[in-house]
Amino acid sequence: MRSTFKVLFYVKKGSEKPNGNLPLMCRLTVDGEIKQLSCKMDIPLRLWDVKNNRASGKSAEAQRINIAVDKIRVEVNRRYQELMQTDGYVTAAKPKDAYLGIGVKQETLLKLFEQHNSEFAKKVGHGRAQGTAYNGFKPHTERTMWLQPTCTWTRKLRISMQRLFPS
Predict the structure, then answer these.
(1) Residue 165 pLDDT
(2) Which one of 61, 77, 100 terminates a domain?
(3) Is the N or C terminus of the chain more exposed, i.e. has fewer CB atoms within 10 Å?
(4) Same domain, 90 and 121
(5) Domain Arm DNA-binding spans what residues (predicted)?
(6) At which of 100, 120, 146 does a domain end?
């Protein structure tokens, strides 16, 4: 099923800050449904180019704002594409929540060890030897971990773990 998706940036003109700047907002539109989120940035109105959805000029402030806008746009688009691949449909709230980290399941380091060890155990005898299993790392990590075992980790840790323990 085809879906329309648009990311738009704008300044919120009714909310001027004491320094004269205006908050920069992001509007996500999916199939006509709109969700808005704050970019957590302020911008002088004179710098904002409404037509191009970017800060105009070559000043350091304009370049900083444009880099941040580009990063947000890329990240929101990436989240939208991931959701389309996994779910097959997307509402406007889904990429917003994914970008903000709302409702995202995060795994602990020890859960990643358990998952890796159980997946690796299935491979023993099928191209992997028992001696190459990493079963000693989880108990060692539990004993020596200075963080609480319930501490959550980001996707970066999962990628690092996959590099350390390739399947």
Answers:
(1) 63
(2) 100
(3) N
(4) no
(5) 9-94
(6) 100
